[in-house]
Amino acid sequence: MFELLKQQLFDVLRAVTPVLVAATLLEALLGDAPAGLFVQFAIGALLAIAGMVLLFIGIELGILPMGRFIGAELPNKGSLWLILGVAFSLGVATTIAEPDVLVLANEVDRLSGGARSARTLSYVIAIGVGLFVAVALLRVVWGVRMTYLLAVTYAVMLVLTLLAPPELTPLAYDAGSVTTGVLTAPVVLALALGLSSVLAQRSAIADGFGLLGFASAGPIIAILLLGLAE
Fold first, then answer.
1. Under 8 Å between Cβ of 180 and 104
2. % of the chain surpassing 90 pLDDT
3. Residue 194, class by beta-carbon neighbours within 10 Å (0-12 exposed, 13-18 middle, 19+ buried)?
4. pTM metric for this prediction
5. Which of 19, 72, 94, 110 could disulfide-pair with 194, CB 3.0 to 4.6 Å?
6. Tell me, what DSSP letter sits at residue 74?
């Protein structure tokens, strides 16, 4: 446990330190912020570091092993609908709790004056991810090549991008990018790797990866369709 804590702390500091140093240098050279604000920045940075360390430890100790276990057990139940239901449910649940999604939804709510509520946007994004995670796991079960799914999906995205209201297009693509965060990514990957590990003569690399890129198309299509429906 101590070794894991030390490793995670080292990884977080290595990732965060350049940002902290850049912000400090910019403030010293260009800014004129009050001392209180800089102290607030330092405290916030320490809290963020502590939070990320604890989050990554929790993912390593609990979320990844449980996701692989669930994925490996699903085929034993002999129900394709169960696999799809679990994939959809986990995709929706993890996306709603995804910090990046919450930040995006709250900012859209604030800037639109409540015209596009954070809750509605979060659920639209989550449903899009859930549906595409379910399709991605169905691909693993049936052995369909990811290139076929991606070709069809991106063709649909291109058509919808041309048809949807222009003001929603940037939001749709941002929504796709924020879904591959610290909660959704490990859950989806672990679920797919666990599922592929029990299927005979299947490659975990071929089946377990590519799902995040595919799943991130779900919220893009969902928001573009929402724009067409309005």
1. no
2. 30
3. buried
4. 0.80
5. 72
6. G
Residue 58: the pLDDT is 86
* Among 38, 5, 3, residue whose Cα is nearest residue 23: 38
Tell me if 178 sits within 8 A of 101, measured CB to CB.
yes
Residues 85, 91, 97, 102, CA torsion sign: negative
Residue 3 to residue 60: CA distance in whole angstroms: 13
Q: For residue 113, is it left (φ>0), alpha (ψ between -120 and 50) or beta?
A: left
3-state secondary structure (DSSP) of residue 181: coil
Using CA atoms, how far apart are residues 20 and 187, in angstroms rounded to an integer? Answer: 29
Amino acid at 13: L
Distance between CA atoms of residues 71 and 189, nearest Å = 10
- The answer to whether 91 touches 188, Cβ cutoff 8 Å, is yes
